[in-house]
Write a structure and sequence with these properties.
Low-confidence stretches: 353-397
CATH architecture of the largest domain: 3-Layer(aba) Sandwich
Distance between the termini: 38 Å
Strand content: 15-25%
CATH topology of the largest domain: Rossmann fold
Order of helices and strands: HEEEHHEEEHHEHEEHEHEHHEEHHHHE
Number of helices: 14
Number of strands: 14
Shape: globular
Amino acid sequence: MAVTLIQLLQLMVQSKGSDLHIATSSVPMIRVRGEMVKVDVPPLQSAEIEAMVGQIITSQQKMDLATSKSLDFAFKASGVGIFRVNVFTQRHGLSIVMRVLSENPPTLSELNAPPICETACQYANGLVLVCGPTGSGKSTTLAAMLNYINMTTKGHILTLEDPIEFQHESKMCMVNQRSLGSHFTDFPSALKAALREDPDVILVGEMRDPETMALAIKAAETGHLVFSTLHTNSASKTVDRIINSFPAEEQAQIRTVLAENLKVVIAQKLIPSADRKRRICFHDILVNNSAVANLIRENKTFQILTAMQTGRKEGMQILDQVLLEAVQSNLVAGEDAFEFANDKALFTRWGGKSVAIGKPMVSGTSSQVQPPAPAGGTSPGSVPGIPGARPVVKKAA
């Protein structure tokens, strides 16, 4: 019997995976602790995937997919969970990527987040950025920070997302969540409208272009606390990324405005633990004190790293230094630290060594890794007949 989409989603949840990948003419794969593993089912054909897509999209979304060749939305499977979905066309046909979302936002304590995350939630205004590569947990950290604000202050939280990931119910705050495509057409127009919607806190899902960046900074300048994300690997490089996104003639003004309104930059990475059983979140943290503001204003951002080294009392830290301490404490393997480090010179003694990612694929064998079984044995949500998977790909840093 052909595997169903619900069965694959159940398997991903049971396996504690983060993403399900389905592609025409390929075996479905699940990302578990950052590594791609195959599901033990035959390759899916075009008609099967088209049927899966047809079950979860509306008539309007079908037209949008036909026009743009890709589609973003959220999907709730009853009894399984909520998933962020991207459907796109590739050379063999349709493909689907589905990421597990939590129905309830986490708390900062559950994430073991650094104290600066709580501090950043208490600013009256300014720009707070959570950065990192794709899949580094930026959305989860931001959700926990908004949840903290929602539980501790009285205000209006407005989110602009693509799509809505964590669902926040109004607690002490009024929370309004808007999704690109369903509730607004583009980030710049939604940000302009947001300034007339009396928010205290604004979440901008991602600062994708100079116009969105400028509007987010303006919102921070006009008395709002603005949270957003960028795909940068370090806190110090984030400042350069923003400034360099603008034309040369505008950069001096952006440096001045950014120096006055930037509050905190948190860049994070998820790195496998030494026992390969979990991933640990490590942070690169920049706090915009007077010294850092002067460096930004005077175009001396190359000195920010030095300011971060001397700013531990204010909550600043450099990811590589924390990572080195983790290696010395045997929390993280040196080879993994070398792979994920920003300054690889600190980890050269481990460079060039192979990194074990689980049982290797061996031609002619049937060795497979069973996903963790639900507590108490087989449950109604289990998927009998779909064994686990073999590690095949290690995600690049």
